[in-house]
Amino acid sequence: MKQIAQNYKSGELTVLDVPVPACKPGGVLVRTEFSLISAGTEMMKVQESKLSLVGKARARPDQVKKVLESMAQQGPMATYRKVAGKLDSYTPLGYSTSGVVVEVGDGADGFAVGQRVACGGNQFAFHAEYNWVPKNLCVAMPEGVASADGAYATVGAIAMQGFRQSEAKLGESACVIGLGLVGLLLLQILQAAGLRVFGIDPDAGRRALAEQLGAVAAGAPDGATLGTLKSQIKLHTDGMGVDYIFLTAGGKSNGPVELAAELARDRAMIVDIGKCNLDLPWNAYYEKELELRFSRSYGPGRYDPNYEERGIDYPIGYVRWTERRNMQSFLELIRAGQIDVSALTSQTVAFEDASAVYEKLNSGELKGIGTLFKYREDAPAERRLAARKPRVVKAAGKVVKLGVIGAGNYATSMLLPHLEKRPDVQLVEVATATALSAANAAKKFGFERVSTDYQGLLADNEIDAVLIATRHSSHAGMVCDALRAGKAVFVEKPLAINEEQLQTIRATMEETGNERVMVGFNRRFAPMLLVLKEAWGVAVGPQVVQYRVNAGPLAAGSWYADAGSQGSRFVGEGCHFVDTISWWLGSEPVAVSAASAKNDPDNMVVTLTYGDGSIATVAYLTDGEPRYPKEAMEVFGEGKVAKMDNFQRIELWQGGRRQMKKSTLQLDKGQKNEMAAFVDAVKSGGAMPIAVASLIATTEATFGATGSAGDGATRIVGGAASDGDETVAITETATKS
Predict the structure, then answer these.
(1) 3-state SS class at 684
(2) Residue 716 backbone phi and psi in degrees, to 5
């Protein structure tokens, strides 16, 4: 299929050939008929991409803060790779479409193949021939509403939410400042609700269109027409001023908020929908005691992954108007003839010409309110692309033919860069849930083909091994599928998120006889730790290990925080530190207990007991300063002390002397060595770098820690529990973790 995308680094806009998205549970696969360009939001993104790196930083100070925090914890080189990878990638455009359902995923009740729908969301409703859309961002199109008009539903929901924030009532008055797409839609919504509406915009054509659509009067923000508008407002409000001012303008001018105060009645409400300057004139707002409200996008549910991605609706008795209900309400107004979107459509263009359209809009050559892309009805629905280049035939030597499932930021910045230039690795295929991420991976790393069907990848007998780098909940199922397909498997941590998944993996290994699995426990391969362990020498007695992790808080809405579907944070990341300690000691944990802070179950201290008599603690801390170095490990025993500070400095104290080494290059957590060890094992057919028993013991320990933090009972790892009341078998955590 075809999809328009933009390279944020260069500003390049192009129509790409990418695979059709997979139809996942909880949503529908839609063949797009029309999509709407949002001239404000999308063109701002296009213009930002053409800025210098300094200009991009000034435009996104929130992202600069994240970069600085990453540099403090991960080091400059790792941060550079992540940032460079994100900048030099294709990103999607679009968020308001209409089309026809071609496939229905499990749990997407109420939808059927062949049904016409309107779709929304800047992560789902792209300018693309096919889109997978979650059920809460997809609504059925009422009979009588044209598909071209339905493409306005998402932008209409933005206007609808602004109206709802005002709580405007029949017979009141309103003024819309900024008569662009959202402003003109809002104007019609206000009229449908029984308000007298005025409009302000510097463009004479937009003012004329506003009056054509029913505005009492429309004027410019200054000059003679503004005076006329003020007279009309005075006439129609008995000299009191309007009840509501809606700011739908953009730009850096402070004019809209100053004008709003001038036109508003005493104790009126100002609703900000656009992105304009808000340096409020204190005296004007104080004297009238004006109220300012913000309107957030399409409505309640926006930016909530539980609502948008997982399909968990808000009860109508508590939240009457969600973003989906706003979309439905807007379409009903179109059906009833109370909103005319056809008057706003300046041009309808074939999607194949999308790149040229954006360039003309950006240069000002193409003007208008609404621009629609029209899509062909016979768009191919293949999920796999043909090879981008002929297969290279190696003259000699064993080459690992690799398939990759998932190509998110970690895989593309920390794993694949260590594989792309190896002569003994052939990157055959990358499969991702979203088409554009597969295309980005192919562009960066030279995969021969891309797809959104990982089962097709596993069925390819040409592929020797697979690398799985998807979200945590999918790891166990994909590992089992890969083992049954006879592949060697590298899976990013964790191996499983609960005991049931782990038992399924063990059963699959027994069923297939295939135990060729490696988990991405990279820290045991870190150069500084390897040097420190060699200096320590062979262990001759029990040791005490302390591992401190400044994990920090998660970003709002992070999928990592969804313990219900993705496992706890300690299951997801704490396995790293358990594995590192086990590797250092050369022993596996036999018991685990934990306690968590009252305000945060993820903020915890875990105690591990090992078979050789050693004990260890992992302090996994989520409430510290984000820029403080992330990790430190100390080992005490045999008259020695070893210390590692964030993989940048190591110390060994023994015999009254200190040996110290610093890393002069970059913070290296072992990913390069880890990848090399996996490739070598696959090439030789020898033992995998980490024994299966160790992978299982580490994973069980994370389940035990999570369960123990909840009830205070110690868990036995890899064996039966004693008869004591305070010790339970690890298998009992299956329903708790």
Answers:
(1) helix
(2) -90, 135
643-694 tens-digit pLDDT? 999 999 999 999 999 999 998 767 899 999 999 999 999 999 999 999 999 9
Q: Which of 68, 404, 737 is nearest to 728 (CA)?
A: 737
Q: Which residue pairs, CB below 8 angstroms and at least 24 apart, start in 684-692? A: 688/488, 688/515, 688/516, 688/517, 688/518, 689/518, 689/525, 690/518, 690/519, 690/521, 690/524, 690/579, 692/509, 692/515, 692/517
Say what the alpha-carbon torsion angle 280, 284, 290, 296 is, to the nearest 10 degrees: -20
The answer to whether 513 and 584 are in contact (CB under 8 A) is no
Alpha helices, DSSP H only, in 88-203?
A: 147-150, 153-166, 181-192
Q: Which domains does the chain have, with CATH numbers?
A: 2-152+341-374 (3.90.180.10), 161-294 (3.40.50.720), 400-520 (3.40.50.720), 523-735 (3.30.360.10)
Sequence-distant (≥ 6) Cβ neighbours of residue 254 within 8 angstroms: 277, 278, 279
Q: How far apart are CA 453 and CA 431, in angstroms?
A: 6
Q: What percent of the chain is modeled with pLDDT above 70?
A: 88
As a dihedral over the C-alpha atoms of residue 228, residue 230, residue 235, residue 241, rounded to 10 degrees, the angle is 170
Nearest Cα to 288, choosing from 234, 248, 245, 350? Answer: 245
Per-residue tokens: 303? 């930016």
For residue 511, the tally of other CB atoms under 10 A from its CB is 11
**Cα 83–Cα 428–Cα 675 angle in degrees, nearest 5:** 55
The dihedral sign for the CA sequence 549, 550, 554, 555:
negative
Is residue 223 within 8 Å of 200, Cβ to Cβ?
A: no
The residue ranges of DSSP E strands in 435-563, in sequence order, are 449-451, 465-468, 488-491, 517-519, 544-550
pTM here?
0.79
Over its C-alpha atoms, the chain yields an Rg (Å, rounded) of: 30
Segment 19-77, tens digit of pLDDT: 899 898 999 999 999 999 987 666 555 555 555 555 545 555 655 566 566 666 566 66
In this structure, the chain runs to a length of 737
pLDDT of residue 386: 43
* Contact call for residues 333 and 189 (beta carbons, < 8 A): yes
- What is d(CA 286, CA 466) in angstroms, rounded to the nearest whole number? 64
Distance CA 541, CA 636 (A): 11
Alpha carbon of 612 to those of 582, 616, 686: distances in Å? Answer: 11, 12, 27
